[in-house]
Design a protein that fits this description.
Layout lengths: L2 H22 L3 H6 L1 E13 L4 E9 H10 L10 E13 L4 E13 L13 E16 L2 E11 L13
Parallel strand pairs: 1-6
Antiparallel strand pairs: 1-2, 3-4, 4-5, 5-6
Length: 165
């Protein structure tokens, strides 16, 4: 990889980590600013029972903008989600102006209210785990998400699962 390719790989990693911070802080407009106009997003989990990927959420940038603008109006559990993201691989195709990355993600939820006798207010719990499969467009030194597929290991989602992960 050329030094320019190494710089792009670093920019890809930085973009992935910044996306996690913005999502944690529910800065949805700023998160979407990291995404290309043709951005595609999906949350999926493989079901061994039906031997098929289940899709929990799928949409383009415009649809995600509409969803995230509506989030404050939803009757939902507002217990904060915190993403712990680790970038495993970044592959850069300088000539095509593209890159891809695979990251691990664990999302923790700190409960504002106790939901039952097993979870108390203020307690943090593991909400979900999975991987991000990201594709990027690179133009003029800018890195933008072109696609994110979230593949969950967790298949049973609780309240709050309508938020982009």
């Amino acid at each position: 990889m050329s030094s320019n390719g190494a710089d792009i790989a670093t920019a890809v990693r930085d973009t992935i980590y910044l996306a996690s911070l913005l999502q944690d802080d529910e800065k949805w407009a700023e998160w979407l600013d990291l995404c290309d106009e043709d951005f595609a997003y999906a949350i999926k989990a493989y079901s061994p029972e039906i031997q098929y990927d289940m899709t929990y959420l799928s949409g383009n940038r415009k649809e995600l903008q509409s969803i995230t603008e509506m989030l404050p109006k939803h009757n939902t559990d507002h217990s904060p989600l915190t993403r712990h993201t680790v970038v495993y691989t970044v592959d850069v195709d300088e000539g095509a102006g593209r890159a891809s990355a695979v990251s691990s993600v664990a999302v923790h939820q700190t409960m504002l209210d106790g939901i039952n006798s097993h979870v108390d207010a203020g307690e943090s719990r593991l909400f979900l785990i999975g991987k991000y499969y990201d594709k990027f467009k690179i133009a003029d030194g800018n890195v933008k998400f072109a696609e994110r597929v979230v593949k969950l290991n967790t298949r049973r989602l609780d309240k709050g699962s309508h938020w982009p992960i």
